[in-house]
Amino acid sequence: MDQTPAKLAAHQPAVPTTGKQPRKLRNFGYLALLAFAIIAGSIFWLFSFSGSDQQKGTTMSRANAQRTGEYDAGKALTGTKKWETGTKGSANKIFETDGKIYLSSSERPGQEKDASIKTSTNSNNLLTSHLITLDANSGSQISSFDLVGETLVPLIVSNGVVYAIIPKIYGGEKDDDWNQLVAISLDDRKELWRFETSDIQGLVIDDNTLYLTAKSQPSYLYALDAGTGKQIWKYETALYPQVPTAGDGLVYFSAYGIGPGNEPQSTIFAIDAKSGTEVWKFNKDMDMGEISIADGKVFVELNLHRNYTSQDYLYAFDAKSGREQWKITTGQTTGQAVADGIVYFADYESGNASDTTNARINAVDTKSGKRLWQKVDNSALKNFSFNLMVANEVVYYKTNSNNNLVYTGKIQALDGKSGEEKWKYELSNPTQEELIAGDGAMYLLGFPQSKQDTGANNYILTALE
C-alpha cells in the first residue's frame, strides 16, 4: 500500500523538579505510558493497513489489484437513475476515481452524429480514439484527449496517469499480437513512455509497480516501474497467461496450454513481487479462470472436460503456500467477486450458458467454503450473462437477454449477507462493460437498440444512485 503513516506526537509526562514520585503514582505513570503506546500503535496500524491496499486515485478492471470486484459506492444505492449521456463512437472502457469518470471510445469520420459528447475528428478517414473525462456527479464533459490513427484501450488510471494498450499499426491494419503499453499524463495529455511487448493479456498496479502478462512463445509476466516504464524483472513461461493479480508481496496469474493427450493443462503461478522468483505453483489438467485474492486466499474457477462431460469447481488456496484450503462443485461459472469474508459467483446448473433454467447467484464463506445462500434467477431468455460487483455489503449483477434480436436486461441488487432482493433496474439497452461504482453511484455502459437511429455506434453511459 502506497501510503505515508500518520505521524504521532509523543507526549511525555511532566517530570518533577524535586523529590521522587510515590510508588503508586510512578506505577500509574508507567501504566499510562503503556496504554498510550498501545493506543498509538493501534492508530498507526489503522492508518497504515486498514481498508484496501489500493493506491489513492487509482482505478482498474475489477476495482483493484486483487481483482475482487469490491467498490466503495460511498452510500447505499437505490437503483434510481441519476443521469444518462451519449458517448462518441464505440465505447469500450469506463473507470471512476476521485469524482471523475474516464471513458474510452473509438470512431471514424462520419460517425459523430447525434452524440451528446463533442470531440474532435480527423479528415484522413483514420480511426480516432477518445479518452473523455466526465464529472461523476453530473455526467458533463470536463475534457477529451484524441489519438488519431491508433486504438487506445485504457487498463488503469492511477495518480493522474492513464495506462493503455495501443496495438501497432501496419498498413492501416492493427496487429493484435504485438501490443504497446503507453502511459499518458491526464493533466497535459503528454505521452510519458511506451513499453513494447507481445499480445498483452492484462495489467494491474500495486505499490507503484505495474504487473503485465503478455502472451507469446515464450510468454512473460513483467514488472515495470509505473513512473518510468522501465522493466524491473520478467518471469518466463511456456503457457499462455491470463490477467495477473497482486497483493501482500506476491503476484499471481493462471496460464493454460495443451498437455498429453491434447487435454487442457493449466497452472497457477505465485511470483515474488520484488525479485520475480517463483514462490509456488499449482498444476491441474483442467481449464482455469482468472484469479482473485482476499482473506489470505487465492480463489479460482476450474473446469474439467472429459468424454463430452463437464464438471466445474471453485478452489481456494492459501495465498502464501499454495496449499489447497477447500473446493466446491459448481455449475458453469461466469465470474466472481469477494468482500466481507464472502466469495460470490454466478453459475449455470446445466453447464450451458444458453439454458437459463437454473442460473444462480451463490455466496460462499471464504474461510470454510460453506455455501451461505443461493438465489435462482430464471428471468433471462437467451444469452444470459452475469457480471458481479460488490459495494457496501450489497452484491450487484447484470443480465442481458436476446429475444429475436431485441435486447433487454436488468441490474439486480441483493443483500450480501442474506441474498434477499433489495431492488432491480430494468435495462432498455443491454450493458457491455463490467459494472463499476464510486462517488455515490453505479455506472453502466450500454448501446441503443437501433444503431441506425443515431447513424453511429454511439453508446449510452448511465449513472444509478
Structure overview:
With 465 residues, the protein is mainly β. It is built from 1 helix and 35 strands. The chain has one helix at residues 23-49; strands at residues 58-60, 70-71, 81-86, 90-97, 100-107, 128-135, 141-148, 153-158, 161-170, 173-185, 191-196, 199-206, 209-215, 219-225, 231-237, 240-241, 245-247, 250-258, 264-272, 278-284, 287-294, 297-306, 309-318, 324-330, 332-339, 342-348, 359-365, 371-376, 388-391, 394-403, 406-415, 421-427, 436-438, 441-446, 460-464. The strands form 8 sheets. The protein has a 5-stranded antiparallel sheet, with no helix packed on it. It has a 5-stranded mixed sheet with strand order 2-29-30-31-32, with no helix packed on it. Strands 16, 17, 18, 19 and 20 form a 5-stranded antiparallel sheet that branches. The longest helix has 27 residues, at 23-49. The two termini are 29 Å apart.
Instruction: List unreliable stretches of 5+ residues.
Output: 1-28, 30-55, 111-124, 351-356, 451-456
Distance between the termini: 29 Å
Beta-strand fraction estimate: over 45%
> Helical region count?
1
What is the overall silhouette? globular
Radius of gyration: 25 Å
Count the beta strands. Answer: 35
Strand order of the largest sheet: 1-8-9-10-11
Helix content: under 10%
The residue-averaged pLDDT reads 78
Structural class: mainly beta
The biggest beta sheet is recorded as: 5 strands, antiparallel
Which characteristics define this entry?
465 residues, mainly beta, 5-stranded antiparallel β-sheet, 1 helix, 35 strands, disordered N terminus
